């Protein structure tokens, strides 16, 4: 695990804008993603047609190459990047016995994307429907096959009953390969939404600064659906960060980030960019999140309401909270999505419209 400094990140961003270089730490891992779009080819796909594009440098947990689904638009320069969800795994038992992470030892390529494509056409944030505030944007679908919340950069060997098994927890590495390609594809992007579902929502929270460093210019908003920023039980957190080589902020900037994700909302409030927004959608007693993080539903509800209370006007953050045990709010056929008298669709439009009011709602 390596510590990352927000102050150093911002300084490095300015330096890279001038020099085009990217420093590497002693361990060989590049802490700052490439932002030189002039040296990176764009992703090529027909306009308004979902297309699978393999991206060099992106791999699944089994080491097979992967890529992204693209639906480019000529209407605007806005871009929506959707990080898919699908659980997580951090040891031999969770990866290969309980199989708590999707596609951890299977490929994700053109065939897998084709099977998923109809869902994307119906999904609220990647549809051309009138109810989507981003209906005219270019859409980018990032599959999830690394089991690490899109945040790892480790190749980890696990000992199983059948012998050693290797997993490429390469979620962050994959995104670092993708960001400059997207910037080259839409260099004039005026606004980018980085959205994620469940595990993808954690990835959106954790990777937003690396995306900003790689793209530099656009307004960047983040949406995390059913990705409660809480601390797992200590042993589970230790196993996660060791298996994935998970980056965390420096202790001097975020002491609470050393024990899990609970410190991230305050950390992002402190170092947020003035024009940035982060939307967090949560069910108070989400059974899926409670199970993965090793807490009771009652404990999760208490922590969820505390997160809600910290997301006040003027912080660039707001939460849409429902008192329920289900998982994922932005579904194709969603469960009840009214909270505090506000419809989720209306709240999402307020989130997308930076000129209008937008605030936390919930029980």
Describe the structure.
There is one protein chain. This protein is an alpha/beta fold and 363 residues long. The protein has one domain: Rossmann fold, CATH 3.40.50. The chain has 10 helices and 14 strands. The strands form 4 sheets. It has an 8-stranded mixed beta sheet, sandwiched between helices. Strands 1-10 form a two-stranded parallel ribbon. Strand 2 and strand 3 form a beta hairpin. The longest helix has 17 residues, at 199-215. Mean pLDDT is 87; it is low at 1-29.
Our Rg estimate from Cα atoms comes to 19 Å
Helices and strands: which structural class? alpha/beta
Q: Terminal Cα separation, in Å?
A: 37 Å
- From the spread of the alpha carbons, the general shape counts as globular
The total count of helices amounts to 10
Order of helices and strands: EHEEEHHEEEHEHEHEHEHHEEEH
CATH hierarchy class name:
Alpha Beta
Q: Approximately how much beta-strand content do the residues carry?
A: 15-25%
Give the low-pLDDT segments: 1-29
Let me know the number of strands. Answer: 14
Give the CATH architecture.
Answer: 3-Layer(aba) Sandwich
Query: Which strands sit side by side, in order, in the main sheet?
Result: 2-3-5-4-8-9-11-12
- State the domain count: 1
What layout of secondary structure does this protein have?
Layout: E1 3-4, H1 6-19, E2 51-59, E3 65-71, E4 79-83, H2 92-97, H3 110-122, E5 138-142, E6 154-160, E7 163-169, H4 171-185, E8 191-197, H5 199-215, E9 219-225, H6 234-244, E10 248-249, H7 264-271, E11 277-283, H8 287-293, H9 297-310, E12 317-322, E13 338-339, E14 342-343, H10 344-352
Parallel strand pairs: 1-10, 4-5, 4-8, 8-9, 9-11, 11-12
Antiparallel strand pairs: 2-3, 3-5, 6-7, 13-14
